[in-house]
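Note to self: the last two entries modelled the partners one at a time, which told us nothing about the interface. This time every component goes in together.
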Amino acid sequence: MHFKSFSFTSCLLAISCLSACTEFQNQTDLVINNVTVVDAVSPIRVERSVVIRDDKIFAVSPALTGAAATTPNVIDASGQFLIPGLWDMHVHFLYEPKLTEQMADLFLHYGVTSVRDTGGNLADLAALRERLTERSRPSPQIYFSGPLLDGEFVVYDGSDPARPELGVDVANTSTANARVKQLKDAGADLIKIYELVQPDVYADLVAAARSHNLPIASHVPLMLTADEAGPLADSMEHLRNIELACASNWQELLQERRKTISEFTEGLGYDLRRGLHSAQRLPAIAAYDENRCNEVLDTLQATTQVPTLRLNTVFRQQPWTRNDWPIALTGMPNDVAQQWQSQIDLLKHNNTAPDHRFADWSLFLISRLLERKVPIAAGTDTPIGLGIPGYSLHTELELLVTGGMTPTQALYAATVAPTHFFGNTDEIGQIKPGMTADLILLNANPMDDISNTRNIAAVMTRGTWIRR
Ligand SMILES: [Zn+2]
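The predicted structure of the combined assembly is written out below.
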């Protein structure tokens, strides 16, 4: 009996010694000690040591004590909280050329370690990613779609200097497959379908993306409804055009849209789209039908919504009124900061009150999505609409909570939900052995208040500290 119990104890000792020995064999390991580990999947773990080896999390164990806790590779994170690096699932590196080169550093500064670019010239994006990969300091992981795949009339056709050329036309089904193959060959990680594609082209683009194994991000094409187009895509953007499908008179609205688009033979795609949105959006919101909307949302249970609440509510939340805005703005290139400041000054002196109905609708829809079990991922559309790269992701998290999410759900939207889109849930987004070491050390608990994700002590990307 005595022998048996001795053997059991020594076995336990052997196991703990073995794990301790393994953890510290490697002199280059980094250890974050005494930290509270918070991710969106596991329960909160207090007084842990997180061991980083190379670019991966190697172990999450009880905190080190004694001499082991004082070696130079161990940092004491008592009172601090470790969360996974954040994703921004909707960014545009090429939208503001004066900002393009700074965006990667801004993302990392704010703990955004992975981004999905949802529209821009493919060759330029591929070159940017290569430059960032080859430089000596780290950059976020960048996934991109290349151009918005649009219809015969292209919304972002580059004809107005205020709107960059983000789109290309896929005017008929014969070009759809070739276009997608070309994107895949040039390094695209997904495709992005836009609002003026025809229904048969939409179907062909979807089939081509499936055959080339590319996930699909999509706006709802205006010739279709959210419950027709959405289930065929992997993500939908901005919650836009869901309001059209949720209206009691959705069939009438759809018929009107189809007629307008079919009869449009001359002019700008931008004007065509804008005309349809301004004719139908607010009337559709006013005709909201909850039963109809539930039916629509129930078709979207496998389609991640990227609401971009930050963009949809920008005039309501007025980011420039926040205490931390001036400092965040000074982190931007001077000419961009000045340009944005003059836009803000104009807005302040504009006497017409902004219309908040779409902003309110967007926030309201979050609770509906949650109830109908529609997945949600965090994205901002930065830098469009005064979105400071990185900084604006924290605003998105706060707005998701305003819309009805718990802090854990919001953290999930910016860490795990994006991995469902890319199929890399086993590699990134949680704090456990084997995961990529993209981490943020916070000075306060984000589960108490999601805005504590702004209270950053340090950021690590793939095992390298970039801000401490
Ligand atoms: Zn966008």
